[in-house]
Structures are given as structure tokens and as C-alpha cells.
Design a protein that fits this description.
- The protein is mainly alpha-helical.
- It has one domain.
- The chain has four helices and no strands.
- The protein is flat and about 40 Å long.
């Protein structure tokens, strides 16, 4: 695994952080969640940009979004902000399979 892939995966993790912090900021009215949002957002974008130096844009963006979406949704279900249903979990597993598939064919 190259440094570009590692940066892309880490930036996908940070996407889940900034999305969760954005919700916790309550429209940027809470200081620390807003600060966490800004820092993680900038770091996530930087990692995505670095990943795109070696990974095709379509693949990089799909993997980045997939990682962030799965982790954000899983966190929301774990903290009971969203309902966890069999169908939702199955769809998230399908999304993970797609992200792994994109990595495998790249």
C-alpha cells in the first residue's frame, strides 16, 4: 500500500470526524465542535488532494466518500442518532464491498 492510499484512507476517516463534528456544532454555534470540524475538514481535504496525486480522481473520491459515509452512518447508529436496521447495515456492508472492490481494481 502506497503513501497515497494511506493518506486517502486516513482522510476518509477524517471525513467521518468532520461530518460528526459539524452536526455537534449545531450550525457553528458551539465552539469546540466547530474547531474540530474546521481542523478535520482541512486535514481531510489535504489527504484527499495528496491521494489524488497517484490515484485516479474517480477512484480516490469514491473511496474517500465511501469510507466517510460508512463510518459516519455507523457512528450515528452506534450513538442512536439513526436507527440501526438490518437493511441499513446490509447496505453499508455493500458500500464497504464497493470501496474494497475499487481499491482492488486500481
Amino acid at each position: 500500500m502506497t503513501l497515497a492510499w494511506i493518506a486517502l484512507i486516513l482522510s476518509g476517516l477524517l471525513e467521518a470526524v468532520w461530518a460528526t463534528a459539524l452536526d455537534a456544532s449545531k450550525g457553528f454555534r458551539k465552539l469546540w465542535p466547530t474547531v474540530i470540524f474546521l481542523v478535520s475538514y482541512l486535514a481531510s481535504m489535504a489527504g484527499l488532494a495528496y491521494g489524488m496525486t497517484e490515484i485516479p480522481v474517480g477512484t480516490a473520491y469514491a473511496v474517500w466518500v465511501g469510507i466517510g459515509a460508512v463510518l459516519t452512518a455507523a457512528w450515528a447508529m452506534a450513538t442512536r442518532k439513526d436507527r440501526a436496521t438490518v437493511l441499513r447495515v446490509a447496505l453499508l456492508v455493500g458500500l464497504i464491498a464497493c470501496v474494497v472492490g475499487l481499491k482492488a481494481v486500481s
